[in-house]
């Protein structure tokens, strides 16, 4: 459990972070979202004390982080940064081993853990003795993640972790990250300016502007119940895409006709499937169904899209 | 070419020793510069405000001319190894500090933040991330420093620290090309080899390079140890002689022949010599009998009781063509004949060297005192006379005296070209017509330029009048150059001691010095 209370950072000429408070549950991913200069990165760096706050406090599992030795603190918090921050003069194995070594692990244990991480992140074994510049961008990003996870820290901070990748690699690594068990159990605070990324990876999203929190909540809450004009305008450009991603079959169930009989080999989709994922799952012309308790909704691309269209006309408030 | 090879093979032992000393000087100073510069460079990356100051100071030190730096260091550190090492150390400092600073500053801030964020301490960030990544840049600085030091180390010979400079400056002083090359070629080779060797190190792959750099660091003290080669045992009194004095037949070798003198000697630059004896770094120097500093530092000239030093009476040396073109010139210059005695000249030199008066002012005062002064006549000038001089105070004063005398008494425009490097330079300029006249010494004319055979020398020995007649005749015949009547003083070599010490030891003549040294050796 990570709690941030009234966190404030003032510089001589401006206030970078102004009275920011939030808490992140164990195993939850909170995304700090906003344009550059909104204070999201400063907030993140105050959590591992790379930046010391002017006022406010950060508690980790009920203890003020300032009461702990700063180096010990940082060794228990995984840190993934933009451009990966891999050390060019270290091999991949040495890069991954940085924190375990700082913690004084035995060589044997470090080797074992490195092998584990390599397998988990689908990195070739040969890469162990290579240098970062010999790897592709996507591979480097995975090594950056492996390095952050090496000592199995309960909390991981990520600062624009995918910022340096091209859109295609970015989407595939994002999907990979989302399905990584090792990450699911972690308490994660991630900074990004990419709305798609925030919605896809965040359990909750904290939208910031000018150092202040504009709204904090689940992606759906931000989309459907914006707290103010800033929040509403922020998503305007990508509203349709975001809705396709956030609206689930369960939301549409009342709008789907329920009279048609279902063939026995019907593809059954879980109720929390997003509209876009459901559309992707159904091949051209195929039918599927969604079932919640005893209500069954038959699906075709056509009726799904028409239900989604109706939903958009009068979204629940 | 053959001469050169013969010289090398004859001097092989000394050459090897000087090369090792050269390497030792370079290595030791580089080591100290590393020990100081590296931490300093690191420190100023932490305290940015100090960076400008430290780099500024190191930069200023770098621009101080090497000979001036050595001059500053003598009062503090004396002569010999230490001032040389300190000077070299100061020159090596800037490239090392600057490259350490820049190298560390240029390590990407993302990487430093990543290292900190993972929980490295400042020291760990420095040793595991910053230094390894800055190493190529730092090493480039070391390489620059090493090459600078190999070059500057030649100047160590000015202050009796040895090295290849002994050949170079000895050769320049004696106008011996083979000797110059015997120092210059190894020095240049050394610089190229050191640079190439370090460059090779730098091209190694990072991991191996780090090991090699470490090895180089460990090797430096070994290299430095060359300096500890045992020195020959010393006599009670220590002499500091100029390169020229040691090498010339009429200098130290003449003393050995005439008096059987045997004294431990250090090679010193002739301008630093006086400072060195004044600071009691040496006890005997090879001075000049009219040097103003004799008076300033209260030094005693030992009487040359066996006439070992040849006469060095000064006289204007003029092109015959010039005298023909300007017939009025000779009678004007003759006005100076005999007017400048030893004590007058020493006094004039003293005013320039020690009281720091301008040569021109001293010259005008002299002319007024001797009633030779005449105001420069107004109106246009009918011709031009170019007066040269060598590069020491006495010659500057003489050039100014001649200029004002000639401009006062004729309608000639006089231009001075002062500070010509040495005898050879002045003489060549005169023959080529680049200058019309310059003050020269008859001993120099005899031994440096005419170089007669031993029989002729023996017949002239010790007789100023005979030497003057011979030199004047030969110059007219061979070079169409005229020696005018001598000015009066005899600026010859002189063995010089501190008056106080010489008084205590009861030494007035070179024979007495020889006797003292002999009795001391007997005691040991």
From TrEMBL, chain A:
Source domain of life: Bacteria
Q: Does the record's keyword annotation contain Hydrolase? A: no
According to UniProt, the name of this protein is: ABC transporter domain-containing protein
**Organism, scientific name:** Nibrella saemangeumensis
Q: Can the keyword Transport be found in this entry's annotation?
A: yes
Q: Which UniProt keywords apply?
A: ATP-binding, Nucleotide-binding, Transport
| One Pfam family linked to the record | ABC_tran
Give the family from UniProt. Answer: Belongs to the ABC transporter superfamily.
Q: What is the lineage of its organism?
A: Bacteria, Pseudomonadati, Bacteroidota, Cytophagia, Cytophagales
Give all residue intervals belonging to the ABC transporter domain.
2-235
Query: What PANTHER family does the annotation carry?
Result: GLYCINE BETAINE UPTAKE SYSTEM ATP-BINDING PROTEIN YEHX, OSMOPROTECTANT IMPORT ATP-BINDING PROTEIN OSMV
List, alphabetically, the InterPro entries matched: AAA+_ATPase (IPR003593), ABC_transporter-like_ATP-bd (IPR003439), ABC_transporter-like_CS (IPR017871), P-loop_NTPase (IPR027417)
UniProtKB/TrEMBL annotation, chain B:
Q: How is it placed in the membrane, per its record? A: Multi-pass membrane protein
The record's annotation in Pfam families points to: BPD_transp_1 (PF00528), OpuAC (PF04069)
Source organism, top-level taxon: Bacteria
**Which InterPro entries does this entry report, sorted A to Z?**
ABC_Gly_betaine_transp_sub-bd, ABC_transp_perm/SBD, MetI-like, MetI-like_sf
Q: Supply the alphabetized keyword list.
A: Membrane, Transmembrane, Transmembrane helix, Transport
Broad class of the protein's primary localization: membrane
| Record field: transmembrane | 20-44, 51-74, 80-97, 133-159, 179-199, 211-229
Keyword Transport set for record: yes
Q: Where in the cell is it found?
A: Cell membrane
Similarity comment: In the C-terminal section; belongs to the OsmX family.
PANTHER family, alphabetized? GLYCINE BETAINE/L-PROLINE TRANSPORT SYSTEM PERMEASE PROTEIN PROW, OSMOPROTECTANT IMPORT PERMEASE PROTEIN OSMW
Which named protein is this? ABC transmembrane type-1 domain-containing protein
According to the entry, what is the taxonomic lineage of the organism?
Bacteria, Pseudomonadati, Bacteroidota, Cytophagia, Cytophagales
């Amino acid at each position: 459990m990570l709690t941030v209370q009234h966190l404030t950072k003032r510089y001589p000429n401006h206030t970078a972070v102004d009275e920011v408070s939030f808490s992140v549950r164990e195993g939850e991913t909170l995304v700090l979202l906003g344009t550059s200069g909104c204070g999201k990165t400063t907030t993140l760096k105050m959590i591992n004390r790379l930046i010391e706050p002017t006022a406010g406090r950060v508690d980790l599992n009920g203890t003020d982080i300032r009461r702990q030795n700063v180096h010990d603190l940082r060794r228990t918090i995984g840190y993934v940064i933009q451009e990966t921050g891999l050390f060019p003069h270290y091999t991949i194995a040495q890069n991954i081993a940085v924190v375990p070594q700082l913690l004084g692990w035995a060589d044997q244990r470090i080797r074992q853990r490195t092998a584990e991480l390599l397998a988990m992140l689908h990195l070739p074994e040969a890469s162990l003795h290579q240098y970062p510049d010999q790897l592709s961008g996507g591979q480097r990003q995975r090594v950056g993640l492996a390095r952050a996870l090496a000592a199995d820290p309960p909390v991981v901070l990520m600062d624009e972790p995918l910022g340096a990748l091209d859109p295609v690699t970015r989407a595939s690594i994002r999907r990979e990250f989302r399905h990584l068990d090792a990450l699911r159990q972690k308490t994660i605070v991630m900074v990004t300016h990419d709305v798609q990324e925030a919605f896809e990876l965040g359990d909750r999203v904290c939208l910031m502007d000018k150092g202040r929190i504009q709204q904090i909540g689940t992606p759906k809450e931000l989309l459907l119940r914006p707290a103010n004009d800033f929040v509403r305008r922020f998503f305007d450009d990508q509203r349709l895409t975001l809705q396709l991603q956030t609206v689930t079959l369960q939301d549409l169930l009342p709008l789907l006709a329920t009279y048609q009989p279902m063939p026995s080999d019907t593809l059954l989709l879980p109720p929390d499937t997003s509209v876009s994922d459901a559309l992707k799952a159904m091949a051209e012309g195929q039918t599927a169904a969604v079932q919640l308790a005893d209500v069954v909704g038959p699906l075709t691309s056509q009726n799904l899209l028409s239900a989604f269209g109706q939903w958009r006309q009068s979204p629940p408030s | 070419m053959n001469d050169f090879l013969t010289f090398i093979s004859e001097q092989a032992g000394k050459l090897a020793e000087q090369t090792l000393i050269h390497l030792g000087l370079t290595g030791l100073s580089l080591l100290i510069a590393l020990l100081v510069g590296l931490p300093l460079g690191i420190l100023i990356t932490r305290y940015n405000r100090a960076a400008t100051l430290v780099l500024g100071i190191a930069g200023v030190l770098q621009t101080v001319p090497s000979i001036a730096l050595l001059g500053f260091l003598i009062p503090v550190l004396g002569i010999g190894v230490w001032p040389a090492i300190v000077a070299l150390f100061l020159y090596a400092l800037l490239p090392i500090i600057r490259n350490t600073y820049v190298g560390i500053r240029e390590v990407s801030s993302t990487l430093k933040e990543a290292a900190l964020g993972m929980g490295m301490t400042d020291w760990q960030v420095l040793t595991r991330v910053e230094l390894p990544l800055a190493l190529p840049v730092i090493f480039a600085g070391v390489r620059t420093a090493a090459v600078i030091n190999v070059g500057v180390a030649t100047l160590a010979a000015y202050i009796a620290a040895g090295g290849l400079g002994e050949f170079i400056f000895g050769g320049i002083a004696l106008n011996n090309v083979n000797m110059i090359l015997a120092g210059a070629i190894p020095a240049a080779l050394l610089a190229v080899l050191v640079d190439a060797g370090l460059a090779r190190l730098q091209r190694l792959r990072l991991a191996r390079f780090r090991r090699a750099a470490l090895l180089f660091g460990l090797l430096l003290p070994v290299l430095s140890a060359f300096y500890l080669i045992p020195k020959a045992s010393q006599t009670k009194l220590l002499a500091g002689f100029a390169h020229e004095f040691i090498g010339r037949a009429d200098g130290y070798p003449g003393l050995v022949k005439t008096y059987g003198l045997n004294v431990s000697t250090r090679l010193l630059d002739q301008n630093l010599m006086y400072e060195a004896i004044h600071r009691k770094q040496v006890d005997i120097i090879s001075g000049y009998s009219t040097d103003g500093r004799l008076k300033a530092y209260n030094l005693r000239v030992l009487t040359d009781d066996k006439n070992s030093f040849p006469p060095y009476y000064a006289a204007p040396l003029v092109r015959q063509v010039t005298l023909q073109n300007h017939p009025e010139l000779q009678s004007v210059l003759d006005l100076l004949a005999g007017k400048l005695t030893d004590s007058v000249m020493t006094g004039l030199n003293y005013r320039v060297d020690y009281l720091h008066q301008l040569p021109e002012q001293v010259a005008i005062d002299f002319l007024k005192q001797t009633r030779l002064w005449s105001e420069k006549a107004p109106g246009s000038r009918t011709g031009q006379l170019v007066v040269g001089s060598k590069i020491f105070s006495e010659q500057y004063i003489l050039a100014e005296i001649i200029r004002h005398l000639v401009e006062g008494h004729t309608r000639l425009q006089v231009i001075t070209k002062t500070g010509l490097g040495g005898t050879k330079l002045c003489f060549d300029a005169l023959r080529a017509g680049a200058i019309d006249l310059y003050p020269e010494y008859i001993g120099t004319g005899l031994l440096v330029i005419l170089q007669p055979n031993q029989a002729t020398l023996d017949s002239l020995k010790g007789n100023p009048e005979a030497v003057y007649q011979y030199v004047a005749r030969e110059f007219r015949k061979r070079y169409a150059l005229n020696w005018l009547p001598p000015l009066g003083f005899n600026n010859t070599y002189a063995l010089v001691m501190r008056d106080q010490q010489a008084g205590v030891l009861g030494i007035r003549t070179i024979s007495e010095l020889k006797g003292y040294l002999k009795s001391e050796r007997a005691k040991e």
